[in-house]
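Q: Sequence in, structure out?
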Amino acid sequence: MPRLLRPVRRLLLLLATLLAPALSAPLAAAGQDALLPVDEAFALSAKASGRDAIEVRFAIAEGYYLYRHRTAVEVLDGGFSAANLALPAGERHTDEFFGEVETYRGSLLATLTGAAADDATRVRLRVKYQGCADLGICYPPQVRELDVALPAPAGPAAGPPPVAALLGAAPRSALLDGDTTVSGPGLPLPETEAYRVEVAADGADRLVLRFTIAPGYYLYRDKTTFAARSGRGATVVPGEWPPARTIRDEYFGEQAVYFDELLLPLAVRRTQAGADTLSLDVGFMGCQENGVCYPPLSRRFEIALADAPANVAAAGSPPTSGAAPRLGLLAALGFALLGGLILNLMPCVLPILSLKALGLAGSGESPARARAHALWYSAGVVLSFAALGALALGLRAAGLALGWGFQLQQPLVVGTLALLMFAIGLSLSGVFTLGGGLAGVGQSLATRSGPAGDFFTGVLAVVVAAPCTAPFMGAALAYAFAAPAGVALGVFVALGLGLALPFLAIGFLPGLAARLPKPGAWMDRLKQFLAFPMYLTAVWLVWVLAKQRGADAVGWLLGGAVLLALGLWAWEAARYRSTALRALGLAIAAAGLGALWPVQQLSSARGSSVAEGGAIDPAQPAADGSLPYSAEALAALRAEGRVVFVNMTADWCVTCKANERAVLATETFRAARERTGTVYLKGDWTNVDPAITAYLAGHGAVGVPFYAVYPADGGAPEVLPTLLTSGLVEDALTRAAARGRSP
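A: Exactly. Output:
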């Protein structure tokens, strides 16, 4: 098992102990009143069989077992140079968490060989071990220190062995300084009894959080997190933490903790006026003194907020960790315009630019015609951006976990776009033409299209390009998703204007339009060539669909594409011959579109894999060295003091894939991870995933790609730009590692 996930696995092993009270009936049926204390389940003793060997014995109670690979002995002091720990072969066992392991039952005799110094009389050992009960309850890793008397060196003056050597040494808890034997702390309480959590409103803009902590338990201050969501964009910011006690934690080092009770004020930050309902997730971790540590826990609360004005500007509180800074309206509009303009350079827009290139090349007949092309195309872009933004805002307000790019999380949309791109490619290849029946245009959509064709091309540009996130665009979108509806629509309009700006400039600046090539026969060849970017786009969308719904979805879609091509070919062949044949062609094409229905009904590809036993092992790194993202894994790694690089990506995000191929899949990135001890976590947002959506929202992001580097000292993450370079990422990892080494 990789070292980086050991704390996560260790905590998972403890999860079953939380259900101990519910297991009282099965325990009684098995002839036991309760789970044995750890020192009774695994009675430890040690003695020296000579000056060159120390025997460490475990008497293991019936129904319990020890892990071979979790058993270790080391010498702390006493003048004994250890050479090797001899462990017998154990019983083979397939463990739920560790996989194929060896275990011991009944007893274990481990022999530590070495050599004692001439003047050595005693040796102090540290013994580490971990075991479980057959009932499915596992103890946390244990540490005991033992004092072992050594026999006197061979010689005539050797006296009787010390009493301690005859009786064996008593184990001592590593957490205590006394020399007496310490029994275990007893069964842990269920986590709902160990930690009671309450939240109450204290006025319109203040909440009070109270933890009631059971005696003998404590709560980590720095592992308490908050994530808030509301229909009006309200969030919370913790107030001043009360004084905490500092303890030396066995796993996390020096930690600030709370015993008995914790009262913490939470300031409510409102971006919109009015009554609201706040959904608050409180995450926390805690331990039993000298006992188990609970896995990351959480509570969810729904709090009704009274009618109150917006207070973001007046509160003056800093943004939550990792969140994007707040923008003003003018800055948000400027960022949106720049982001939309840069979006023209993103690879996801290339196919649509291919379509528009033909229209612009054919517009050289007059300045008025060029302006008409530019205006209708811009209208399609701007109105589509506004409609898509309004839909996203409405769905989020309805409580759905959606972000920017949500349309390509829907298999029905992906399949429809794939068939549409395929059909456009067929049109450019000459299989069929869009004639006068389409909105009275009378010309082909792909060449000298009229208003409807230009408008439709703008719509396509937004649908395909919107999931990409260009520089400046992310901050503008974050502002829009937290702003009032009217202001948000203004940001989306600015994004559309930025995307359409190059074509507006060509249409309205005669100098630029004059540089375009004149129409001619070359346009037919260019039109045929530009069919291939459409086919490639269709292939990409089919690949995305395969990731979402598996091979069955690809089969249905390819069958539908064949029927669509046949129907469109029949339609074109019967153009001047038979109305009935043209109707038959349309019916066949419609049957091809009907293949989208069974695609939508298929379960997700990930769900099918799990059902067939092919689930991804979260402990097994992928080919690029990444591990699957989860909030629990991130929390455990940060608690361990590791540098963590988080990559939120999606298969339909072309920018994400370009960054991964150019930067994150390189040897340079791998070497930087190894040098800084960085763990690479990857979150897949290809399908709707509320957990990833909540993570993005918590960092002020509304879409992918999103990259964050968490430093080793547990501080706030550094959010990286949407376009990566190897140098930029390497510098961020170096800074994060250096923060962990700072005094």
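The first helix runs from residue 6 to 15.
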